[in-house]
User: Fold this.
Amino acid sequence: MKLKSFPKGGIHPPHRKNSMYSKDDLNATIPSIAIIPLSQHIGAPAKCVVKVGDIVKEEDLIGESVGFVSANIHTPIPGEVIEIKDVYLPSGRVSPAVVIETKGEFTRLGKPLEVSSWEGLDKSELVDIIKRQGIVGLGGATFPTHVKLTLPEGVELEHLIINAAECEPYLSSDHVLMLEYSKEITTGLKILKKILDPKNIYVGMEVNKKDAGELLTNTFKEESLDASVVLLKNKYPQGAEKNLVRAIIGKEIPSGKLPLSVGVINLNVSTVYAIYEAVCLNRPLVERFVTIAGGAVKKPGVYRVRVGSTAKSLIEECGGLIEEPSKVIFGGPMMGFTVFDLDVPITKGTSGILALTKKEVNAAKTTNCLKCGRCVDGCPMGLLPSKLYKLIDHNKYDEALDEGLNDCVECGSCAYNCPAHLFLVQQFRSGKSIVRRSKGAK
Amino acid sequence: MKDKLVITSSPQFHNGDSTLTVMWSVSLALIPALVWGVAMFGLSSLWIVLVSIVSATFAEFILNKIYNKSSLWDGSAFLTGLLIGLNMPPQMPGLAWIYVPLGASFFAIFIVKGAFGGLGNNWMNPALGGRVFVFFSWTKHMTVWEVPMLDGVTGATPLGAVKSGLLGYSGSANNPLSLLNEVRDNSISYFDLFLGKIGGSIGEVSALLLLVGAIYLIIKKIIRWEIFASYLLTFTVFIWIFDGTRFGNGLFTGDILFHLLSGGLILGVFFMATDMVTSPISAKGMIIYGIGCGFLTFLFRVYGANPEGVSLAIIVMNIIVPIINRYSKPRLFGHNKKELENE
Assistant:
């Protein structure tokens, strides 16, 4: 069978997906103190609805979404609000956060959850539930899901594409999720089918997750859901939205447009599972699958983790560090964020905690650009990263825009390849933000 | 741990290549050819190479002082010196063995590289620039070719012998190798050409050992197939089509093997044309560049004044690399060509 892929660019970093998981011990220890940032999504931060001293029950609302592009925040643990303070998010931004100390009883943990029927609900009721439960895209971008599910008037959806590519090295959270919860994912897809009524449903994944693909295909058959698994080449960044859509339906999303312009809505497979939990189990998004890995971690693994746990507690869960890490990363090594201490909390968008050794990081001194063209070779968007770098270096932002600066998806393929070790992605980010700011000034 | 964790923008890891590994790998790949050259031509050739390397490194050291940079150990100056040394004739009269390689290295580092801003900013391959500079400055010293394993005896290179042999030629030889054996005392075979038992620059004679180095670089993904494949293909096609005519054999009878194995072609194709800094940045551009190099090498070799054409061909193509880059951009994802024109 011929594997699908996007045609140009991309890189082949080592997979290093050796993460183990145990079926019986999938849940990480529940934190005794949870730090829950109020900005865990793209859009306006949620408004705090608790104050210090308040007692909250498990899964209570603590942050209320403000505006359309925003999301509710719930507490993963029952307890007392002991502090409301600013914390650093993995991205380095500062967000207010509610700190809760476990107290009292877990109302839902460990108890059998009632599966409620959803067939009787209509589209808008389903979207409302998804909105109320604070579901955001779990692939990393954390875009509020109810926004995506609200189709413009009169638009018929051609394809629903589920992103299960998980092309980042080390990460296997989605893989484990699919192996363990294929039935639930199928139900989630049925809910989405009802909301969006797409003509086709595709689940795209890299071929290194073939076992999960076969399992899903069988489950779709058993549950008589008309959806197909599309196996993709192992190539980074197969899971980047634009590349995934190109690989699966063969169409390019025009520059600056949304996937909907080619009739597509794109959702991460973990998001589909979260939708299932929200609708069928009446659970808000307070947990997610996280891969804990990297050469410095004793026993790498995949766990189901409560939002608000810290990196430190998760690494301890995995036997602690066996070596001083050079970098601790939230997310994957290609697009994740480094943090400067281990007290940073897991948010809805955290797919992995990686503690990489110096050897794994492979840093080297930055030199002049060698014009070797490896960045051009790696770029899945057809950009000339070395040229863009130079243009931004010379403050020629308009020219950089003409060369496609805003088409850069910041996948990092260029910088991964660069023998001069130039900080290409960083340069493009700063270039983009300067352009954005100057546009705002005009 | 707080002070020790590294904070960077993504991506957080790297494939491990660096300027340093690239430069030193290329130098390493050239060592077998160097050893062969010294074995063939004697210790005098080693001195020439050493002078080149030392003077190139010294020049880089001076530049570092002037610009307050530290690029001495990135290996680029060493590599430039090594390439210049390998491109020198194995023997030079008087003190020429000092000042010719020294002049080439200084020109390469100070003018070709340093004056344009150092590593990565030069538009011409420094080693080739240095070589061409001394070729025109001391042409006589640069065209004395020692016969391998016969100390002090000089003769023409195979390409040179064929070129001069053809002038006013009316014999019966119908290919370059038979012509070569007619005008020389000791006969040579294709195998001698392949091994490198021929006259020529110190590092260009052994096609075999250069190929060994090239394969190492191909495996390490340092040199790009787009460049050497299109270069070799274009060159062989044109030689095959046209070179036969010089021997009265008509079109499509050129002696490909002879041309591939003689002169600096292998050295030029795999180690000079593939220089990252002075070749195009997109795959499409590299193919265009390789075709250009191949065609010009053919043109200069067969119809030019000098028997060799590789250096000049590559330099001419170096000059037009910016133009190639401009017209060989990859297509931007999500941009429809027609749509863009309408905007």
